[in-house]
Design a protein that fits this description.
Oligomer: single chain
Length: 412
C-alpha cells in the first residue's frame, strides 16, 4: 500500500463566519496516527451502520470547519484522498475541547471510549482527533450532526394526559441502551447533566458526544450517568420531564441502588411503565399485581411501608373515598373485596379495572374504551401511583432502608 501523499499547497479556505479559519493541508498532529499511514475506511451518512450507510476509503489529507468565538461544536468537512488521487470531502461535525483542560488527554479518552461502544444506539461516530494549531485547541471529528440538542426545535416531551410522546420514548430507550452498553464496558460519560453532551442528527435521532471527556474519577461510576441523565431531563426547560405525574416513579428508579447491578438494570428501566406503549403498560400493571399478591405477608407489609414513605397521602384513606365519584369504578368495587393495606388495595383495584371494567367504562364513554383511556382513568384516580409502585418493586434492600429512615414511625 502506497504511503500518504506529502502535504502540498494548502487547501482553499471555505467561507468562514468569523476571522479565525481552519483549513489544513494535512492533519498535523493526529493522535490516531495509523489513519494517516493506511487506507482509511470511513462510514458516513446518517444513522448507525446499515443499509443507508455509505462506506468510503481514502488517505486523510485534512479537515476544515467554520468557527465563531464560543462555539462548542462546528461544522465542516473531512478531506480524504482516494486511490485515484482525487480529493473527496465528507461532511463532519467537530467538537472543540476547552483550552483550559488537557486537550490531548481529553481527546484520547473521548476517541477511545467512543470506539469501544461504536454502533450503539445513541453514540455519535468519531472519525479522528487532532490538534487544531490555529485555534490552539484539540478537536474530535464526528459524523455529520445537525446541532446541539438545545438548539433544535423538538417535539413536545409530553402529549396530552402526561403521556410521553412516541418520539421521546424512542430516544430515551436508545440513550438508556447506550448507557447500558457503556456500563458493561466500565465506561463513564461524566457529562450527562450537561446539555452540550447531546447532539442531534438531521434524522432527529439524539446522539451522545464527549464521552469520558473528564479524567476518571474513582468515586464516579456508570450509574452516576443515570443520575445525571435524570437531572438533565428534569432541568432542561425545553423538556421539563418532571412536570409529568409518572416521572417521580421513573426518577426514583434510575436514582436507586438497583442501577448498580451492571448487567440487569437496563431491563428494569426499559420495562418501566412510563416507557411502554399503552397495551404493554397495562400488562405491566397486571404483572405488578401478581408480584405483590405472591409476597408473604411480612414482605408485603414492608412493601406497603416503602410506598407510604413516598406517598404518605394515601395512608389513612380508604379505597372507596378515592373512587366513589366514578359510577363504573363503583360497580367494579362492589364486585370485589378490599381489606388491609390501602397500597395493596389500589394495585388490586387497578388489576380489576383492567380485567373486569371494560364494559362498564365503555358504557359511559360512548361505547369506546381503549388501553389509553384506561391509563388516563388510572392516573385520574391514582396519579403517579403505579409508576412509583413499579419502581419500588425493583428497589434493593439498601434503597428500602434509606426510605424508612425518612419517617419517624412506619404505619404498618
Amino acid at each position: 500500500m502506497r504511503p500518504r501523499r506529502p502535504p502540498g499547497k494548502p487547501l482553499e479556505k471555505a467561507h468562514f463566519k468569523a476571522k479565525q479559519a481552519v483549513a489544513y493541508p494535512g492533519v498535523r498532529r493526529a493522535w490516531q496516527s495509523r489513519f494517516l499511514k493506511s487506507f482509511f475506511m470511513l462510514g458516513m451518512a446518517g444513522g448507525s451502520a446499515g443499509k443507508d450507510t455509505e462506506t468510503v476509503g481514502g488517505f486523510i489529507q485534512g479537515f476544515r470547519f467554520s468557527y465563531e468565538e464560543g462555539d462548542k461544536i462546528s461544522h465542516g468537512s473531512l478531506i480524504l484522498e482516494s486511490r485515484s488521487d482525487e480529493l473527496i470531502e465528507h461532511e463532519a461535525t467537530f467538537l472543540l475541547l476547552p483550552k483550559d483542560q488537557d486537550g490531548k488527554g481529553a481527546a484520547e479518552r473521548i476517541f477511545q471510549s467512543t470506539h469501544k461502544v461504536k454502533g450503539s444506539a445513541a453514540i455519535a461516530s468519531a472519525h479522528l482527533i487532532a490538534e487544531c494549531e490555529e485555534l490552539d485547541t484539540w478537536i474530535v471529528c464526528y459524523e455529520k450532526l445537525e446541532c446541539l440538542l438545545q438548539h433544535k426545535d423538538l417535539p413536545p416531551f409530553y402529549e396530552q394526559n402526561n403521556e410521553i410522546s412516541g418520539y421521546w420514548k424512542n430516544q430515551l430507550r436508545a440513550i438508556i441502551t447506550t448507557l447500558s452498553d457503556m456500563g458493561i464496558r466500565d465506561l463513564y460519560h461524566g457529562g450527562m447533566a450537561n446539555s452540550a453532551s447531546y447532539a442531534i442528527q438531521s434524522s432527529m435521532n439524539i446522539k451522545l458526544i464527549g464521552i469520558s471527556k473528564e479524567p476518571n474519577d474513582k468515586k464516579k461510576y456508570f450509574f452516576n450517568d443515570l443520575e445525571d441523565f435524570d437531572k438533565f431531563l428534569r432541568g432542561a426547560a425545553y423538556i421539563n420531564a418532571s412536570s409529568g405525574c409518572d416521572w417521580q416513579g421513573f426518577s426514583y428508579l434510575i436514582n436507586s441502588h438497583a442501577m448498580c447491578q451492571k448487567y440487569t438494570w437496563a431491563q428494569a428501566v426499559l420495562n418501566h411503565p412510563i416507557l411502554l406503549d399503552p397495551a404493554l403498560r397495562i400488562q405491566s400493571y397486571i404483572a405488578l399485581y401478581e408480584w405483590a399478591d405472591s409476597l408473604p405477608f411480612g414482605v408485603l407489609k414492608k412493601f406497603c411501608n416503602d410506598l407510604y414513605c413516598l406517598m404518605p397521602q394515601y395512608y389513612g384513606d380508604n379505597l372507596w373515598n378515592l373512587i366513589k365519584k366514578c359510577p363504573a369504578c363503583c360497580q367494579i368495587y362492589s364486585n370485589g373485596t378490599y381489606t388491609g393495606f390501602i397500597y395493596k388495595n389500589i394495585i388490586k383495584f387497578v388489576r380489576n379495572m383492567i380485567d373486569h371494567g371494560h364494559a362498564d367504562f365503555a358504557a359511559i364513554n360512548n361505547g369506546s374504551w381503549t388501553d389509553m383511556d384506561l391509563y388516563n382513568k388510572i392516573n385520574d384516580l391514582f396519579a403517579g401511583f403505579m409508576s412509583l409502585a413499579y419502581s419500588v418493586s425493583k428497589a434493593t434492600a439498601k434503597d428500602r432502608d434509606l426510605l424508612r429512615k425518612r419517617v419517624q414511625r412506619l404505619p404498618y
